[in-house]
Amino acid sequence: MNNKSIKNICCIGAGYVGGPSMAVIALNCPDIIVNVVDINLQKIDAWNSDDLSRLPVFEPGLDKVVEKCRGKNLFFSTEVERNIRKADIIFISVNTPTKEIGLGKGYASDLKWIESSARQIAKFSRNHTIVVEKSTLPVRTAETIRDILESSEEISDFGTEREQKSFSIISNPEFLAEGSAINDLQNPDRVLIGGEEEESIDRICSIYKNWVDSDKIITTNLWSSELSKLVANAFLAQRISSINSISALCELTGANIKEVSLAIGKDKRIGDQFLKPGPGFGGSCFKKDILNLVYLCQYYGLHDVADYWEQIVKINSWQQERISSIVIKNLFGTLSNKKLAILGFSFKANTNDTRESPSIAISKNLLKEGSELNFYDPKVNKNQILKEFQGNEYEKKIKVSETAFDAAKGTDAVIVLTEWEQFNNLDWELIFQVMRKPAWVFDSRNYLDKNHLSKVGFKVWTLGQSS
Ligand code: UDX
Ligand code: UDX
């Protein structure tokens, strides 16, 4: 079958992955109608907002794509049943958080939303439907989906009509990184499509061939595809924990982590990507996916392999604890009666996503030591920040400011936790004037101009450099 036979796509889940990835399919496939559905009405309303700055996901370039396609071949709605019914292909892009209770708690992915999506598809779909796993999933999840779908592969009644349903399952994990999602989707390193039936694989390939070169489209069996996504994230996170572990050694030996990462990254076998030191990786994927990999290894009795990968997550938490302790030590060992400014709350620059942000863990450590915190982030709104601390004893010690300058007023230290470019261009002289002395800047991303800050009068700590 060719691309012409695909007329209608439905995606369940209008989140950080579902929204942008479907917008880019709609952009490149004007003949295909793409319906993105979500149970969250507020989110759908935001996707449909006339004011494109109110889209629920902030991604450079996303607003332009939505503006071009929305209402033409890209639609956002809560009408799950109707859109499943019309679809030739259904992408599942719901969230799969780490389980908080029960078997595998703290490690395994919670597949409750995958299961409920599969049940909805089983109930409402018609004729033959290709079901595509977009969410990152444990290996062999397709089996669960298949069991649910196959139990409804029978003649169903739709009013007076009776028809045979059938399904095929494809794994097509998404590799986009937040903040560069549109570029990643438009120019992917590769598109991975795993499945068992050639015809269904070909149909999914035909969508991507509208804008991706054929040699970048990799087809594999289902299980390789599911596992590759987990392993890709584990390898990326491993590099970050590796460089972060060395940042501590640099601080003690007089080496500079930036110089070390430049020097090792020039070796083609190592490469220069994902060698930026920082306050640890955040985001919805890395920690969850590694813990999921750890769980899988344990399940299959590979305990040493599980321990190996778990260490990546442990080093990540260690780095956050370490940075918190360094702040405390430099501020004379106590944060009681001190105010600190936290610049950056998203887990990386150019996104408004705060899931697993290092800012959260580090802020909580600092609050535990008795400090008050003033936050500023260019894209994360006040409620999103306050929500993180709601209901705990520290709620009253939090303030969110409209500018970095306001956040810094009256504080002893500015702690930069997200590498927003604008923090490099702040009027640091003015900021210095309104802070209590000695005024500190802690640069956990090693990207500010240390010489300039020192000249202004700040005491400066930079990750991965001896002071
Ligand atoms: C995705 C997932 O695919 C996850 O497995 C992957 O690791 C990261 O990317 P993401 O798009 O970031 O998750 O999640 P989120 O922004 O939370 O979006 C998921 C959406 O699915 C939410 O808007 C939620 O309301 C929706 N949803 C969830 C449904 O529409 N139906 C459900 O049954 C459950
Ligand atoms: C990641 C993967 O890159 C992507 O392929 C997958 O689909 C989803 O998970 P994402 O979490 O959106 O993407 O962002 P990424 O750029 O990978 O950054 C993750 C975290 O690692 C951030 O907190 C970032 O600040 C940190 N990071 C990244 C570093 O500390 N150093 C680096 O060199 C790179």
Tell me briefly what this model is.
Helices cover 41% and strands 15% of the residues. The protein is built from 17 helices and 16 strands. The model has no long low-confidence stretch (mean pLDDT 94).
Structure description:
The strands form three sheets. An eight-stranded mixed beta sheet has the order 3-2-1-4-5-8-9-10, sandwiched between helices. The model has no long low-confidence stretch (mean pLDDT 94). It is globular and about 75 Å long. Helix 14 links the parallel strand 12 and strand 13. The protein has 17 helices and 16 strands. The longest helix has 32 residues. The protein is an alpha/beta fold and 467 residues long. Bound molecules: uridine-5'-diphosphate-xylopyranose (2 copies).
Helix residue percentage: 40-55%
Summing up helix and strand content along with how strands pair, one would put the structural category as alpha/beta
- What would you call the shape? globular
Strand order of the largest sheet: 3-2-1-4-5-8-9-10
Question: In terms of topology, how is this protein built?
Answer:
Blueprint: E1 8-12, H1 18-28, E2 33-37, H2 41-47, H3 62-69, E3 74-77, H4 80-86, E4 89-92, H5 112-124, E5 128-133, H6 141-150, E6 155-158, E7 161-164, E8 166-171, H7 181-186, E9 191-195, H8 198-208, E10 217-220, H9 222-253, H10 257-265, H11 286-299, H12 303-330, E11 339-343, H13 358-368, E12 372-376, H14 382-389, E13 398-400, H15 404-408, E14 413-416, H16 428-433, E15 440-443, H17 450-456, E16 459-462
Helix pairs in contact: 1-3, 5-6, 9-11, 9-12, 11-12, 12-13
The protein binds uridine-5'-diphosphate-xylopyranose (UDX) (2 copies).
